[in-house]
Design a protein that fits this description.
about 375 residues; alpha/beta; 2 domains; six-stranded parallel β-sheet; 15 helices; about 45% helix; about 15% strand; nucleotide binding; NAD; Glu/Leu/Phe/Val_DH_AS; cytoplasm; Glu/Leu/Phe/Val/Trp_DH_C
Length: about 375
């Protein structure tokens, strides 16, 4: 049964309607949080604890409305359940979103208040970094609860989880190349990366070392400039629309916010493979079939971007980077297994991944 705690007196019916819509995936608990003193408004969504405590990051974003923030938390937390299941972790799925522009409202007081809400869940939810939050933020959040990962090594954590996230996406891309072209390398392939922030710029390095040609874009000019300064052989284009139309593009890697694969982007997408770090890349149900019908191989986002959650989960048991990297390397095998299941069942890879994740969660519930 969903647990709803009011965010504030002005919460409208639209937010509550979003919470209880059955198609959102049957979440166990949704907490709407507010701390007036610090200005905190946040949503913590726990989708499932069938495999263990819900694990997922904290996103800090300027949402257009509270309902949009709730919907994002619901979608992201459900994705974390599936991601953790296929990553072989003993964790369910959860996610938190803090509402507001982090450049304008993020303060120590606000992060400490958020940490107190995490503490109030008594270990049902374990948090970490996500878009708009960083290791330094998790160090602050952890001061008011013991269920915070993604902390700095100086504070008992593993540091930046984007390192293994990028590594895992690269392994998923290698598996995609194996399935599509019979060779697990991107050498000689043209790869377009939309978003070269925390994960995307690290993915650039893996691809260049593997011999790929890389094209990038980002809404932040400074992010593009940073990559181009380090790797002048990388080509930059104006925006994502230009990127997906790039002639000779083999792989499209969405590495920014979700919804990259939509009714608008699919008809002009030139790549034969989609494999990136962004969460919730499919704008709506049915896009996965449209990709398949067009002959575009889609590596499910929550499978290939699981390297970061593998790292933060390990932090709870005494972090060991080499052990985590070995686990993240298995994303290659998991991705290939999903493609094989999709082919055997005659379904898109996204549906095959869902079936495998649901199977593991169902087995855990029976136990």
């Amino acid at each position: 049964m969903t647990d709803v705690r009011p965010a504030h007196a002005g919460t409208d019916g639209g937010v509550l309607h979003t919470l209880f819509r059955s198609e959102q995936g049957g979440h166990e608990q949704v907490v709407l949080c507010q701390d007036r003193a610090s200005g905190l408004k946040a949503v913590i969504a726990i989708h499932s604890t069938a495999l263990g405590p819900a694990l997922g990051g904290t996103r800090f974003h300027a949402y257009a409305s509270e309902e949009e923030a709730v919907l994002d938390a619901l979608n992201l937390s459900r994705g974390m359940s599936y991601k953790n299941a296929l990553a072989g972790l003993d964790h369910g799925g959860g996610k938190a979103v803090i509402i507001g522009d982090p450049d304008l409202i993020k303060t120590e007081e606000l992060l400490l208040a958020y940490g107190r809400f995490v503490a109030s869940l008594g270990g049902r939810y374990v948090t970490a970094c996500d878009v708009g939050t960083y290791v330094a933020d998790m160090d602050v959040v952890s001061r008011t609860n013991k269920w915070t990962t993604g902390r700095s090594p100086q504070n008992g954590g593993a540091g930046d989880s984007s390192v293994l996230t990028a590594y895992g996406v690269f392994q998923g891309m290698r598996a995609s190349a194996q399935h599509a072209w019979g060779d697990p390398t991107l050498r000689g392939r043209k790869v377009g990366i939309a978003g070269v922030g925390k994960v995307g710029h690290l993915l650039v390095e893996h691809l260049l070392q593997d011999g790929a040609e890389v094209v990038i874009t980002d809404v932040r000019a400074d992010s593009v400039a940073r990559v181009r300064a380090k790797y002048p052989q990388v080509t930059a284009v104006a925006d994502t629309e230009e990127l997906i139309r790039t002639e000779g593009l083999d792989v499209y890697a969405p590495c920014a916010l979700g919804g990259a694969l939509s009714d608008e982007s699919l008809p002009v997408l030139t790549a034969k493979v989609v494999c990136g770090a962004a969460n919730n890349q499919l704008a709506h149900p049915g896009v996965e079939k449209d990709l398949s019908d067009r002959g575009i191989l889609y590596a499910p986002d929550y499978v290939v971007n699981a390297g970061g959650v593998i790292q933060v989960a390990d932090e709870l048991h005494g972090f060991d980077f080499d052990r985590c990297k070995t686990k993240a390397a298995k994303i290659f095998d998991t991705t290939l297994a999903i493609f094989a299941r999709a082919k055997a069942d005659g379904i898109p890879p996204a549906a095959a991944a869902d079936r495998l994740a649901e199977q593991r969660m169902a087995e855990a519930r029976r136990v």
